[in-house]
Fold this sequence. Notes:
This is Class II glutamine amidotransferase. Keywords: Glutamine amidotransferase. InterPro entries: EgtC-like (IPR026869), Gamma-glu_amide_hydrolase (IPR052373), GATase_2_dom (IPR017932), Ntn_hydrolases_N (IPR029055). Pfam families: GATase_4. The structure is a single chain. The strands form 2 sheets. The chain has a 7-stranded antiparallel beta sheet. A 6-stranded antiparallel beta sheet has the order 5-6-7-8-12-13. The protein has helices at about 15-20, 25-30, 70-80, 120-130, 145-155, 160-180, 215-225, 230, and strands at about 5-15, 45-50, 60, 80-90, 105, 110-115, 185-190, 195-205, 210-215, 240, 250-255, 260-265, 270. The protein is of the alpha+beta class.
Amino acid sequence: MCRWLAYSGTPIRLEELLYKPRYSLIDQSMHSRFGVETTNGDGFGVGWYPVDGPGEPTLFRGVGPAWSDANLRELARSTMSPLFLAHIRASTGTPVQQTNCHPFRYEHWLWLHNGSIRDFHRLKRDLVLAVDPELYPFMAGSTDSEVMFYLALTYGLRDRPVAAVERMAGLVESVGRTHGVEQPLQMTVATTDGDKTWCFRYSSEGHSRSLYYSTAISALHQLYPENERLRRLSDETRLVVSEPLADLEGAWQPVPESSYGVIQKGDDELGRFEPAVP
């Protein structure tokens, strides 16, 4: 499987999360603690928005292991962003190529995924045929993750993100059952339009991959008043991760099974995720 993170809040350099924490994303690419595979070396990617506000995000993706990419290290050292997604990949069978590396981008939207569509080779044709014909030309890779993204776009991601992802999941499960695949979907997903970020944790078998969100920064300021790194972050700052980046007591909360979260200005949201057949 894969590991990922989604950051929103005070602008920071990418290296603050990709490299500096004890269990940084780069560290997880070599020896993940909570993943199905220990090593995630089948490519990587980062997508980030500019400091001066939403707009089309920039992508940097590579096919080699994240731990040995000198360009990623240089970029992370010099790039600041208030909102970015980062991903390290462990392929579930599709080729290791740049177009298969996350995040995926369409206009000002980004999408990344950990998990798989079981027996994707059997379900792929039916799923791809459900993608809006106007969106189909923008699909560049061969992964189940990208197909999920374009199905969500087809079902209204830009207007009603939660409902669109629920319809995508419902279609995958319906097509899976048609082909005799009883538990076809395993996913943790993050997607953003540059303003809000939506995160999802769901699997057909009810035993989803790990996912955590950071405790409110205001609470962490009280718990760790001497922590210089935390003092630099605003109360709006939030982080969602496949696995915690550090052993800081009280800093991480597990995302409940079959749920979604919305990171936004003001109060965040947490709700029940329920697939719906389109």
